[in-house]
Amino acid sequence: MNFPIHNIDNAPEDAKPLLKAAKENFGFVPNLLGEFAEAPAVLEGYLTLNEIVGKTDFSPVEQQLAILAVSIENKCHYCSAIHSTILKNQLNVDEGIVNAVRNGDPVPDEKLNALVTYVTKAVTSRGFVEEEDLQAFIEAGYSKQNVLEVNLIIALKTISNYTNHLANTPIDEAFEAEKLEFETV
After folding, report:
1. Contact by Cβ (8 Å): 53, 153
2. pLDDT at 185
3. Helix axis angle, 77-85 to 144-167, nearest 10°
4. Which residues of the chain have pLDDT under 50?
5. Which member of 26, 43, 167, 185 has the greatest number of CB atoms within 10 A?
6. pTM of the model
7. Contact 147/43 with Cβ under 8 angstroms?
């Protein structure tokens, strides 16, 4: 199904201020946000959740790696490209770490690997994480607070990943270099 990619001029009225703020923040309106504008409440909810994820106990690098892990597990071409770009170009994370997450390989940092592993298991199990997986996450230096914060990150990315699956969102030029192709069912 085709979903319109709204811009500031043609978006529903309630979405216009949110798209203006996104343009100020990113320098352009990302295609995903333009699609979300079709349902202004979804756009607002996504942006609000994204802001709240920034308030978690995770570092910016951990936040982005967890977001990338969810997006990879959910086979989201759009979010995988964006968050790989952010990790490499804005947060200067070693390409080997980012590529490990993208390829489903162990991350060459023990604590970050525990994060990515836990996030992936939480997504694949739909939250029914085995006790030993939960314990491994805690033993790696994370907390019960972080366990719940992972659920917040999964909720955020589920909104965008599922929208991208429905809309087949075109990747913005700024993120094209990190494009991945996924086989879908």
Report:
1. yes
2. 58
3. 120
4. none
5. 43
6. 0.94
7. no
pLDDT 10s digits, 142-151: 999 999 999 9
Q: Which domains does the chain have, with CATH numbers?
A: 13-53 (no CATH), 60-178 (1.20.1290.10)
Of 157, 155, 149, 9, the residue nearest 74 (C-alpha):
157
Amino acid at 2: N
| Cβ atoms within 10 Å, residue 114 | 19
Q: What angle do CA 151, 167, 81 make, to 5 degrees?
A: 60
Of 184, 181, 178, 183, whose CA–CA distance to 98 is shortest? 178
Task: Evaluate whether 68 touches 101 at the Cβ level (below 8 Å).
Answer: yes
Q: Where are the alpha helices (DSSP H) in the chain?
A: 16-26, 31-36, 40-53, 60-73, 77-85, 95-103, 110-124, 131-139, 144-167
Q: Quick one: tokens of 89?
A: 């170009």
Quick check: helix, strand or coil at residue 131?
A: helix
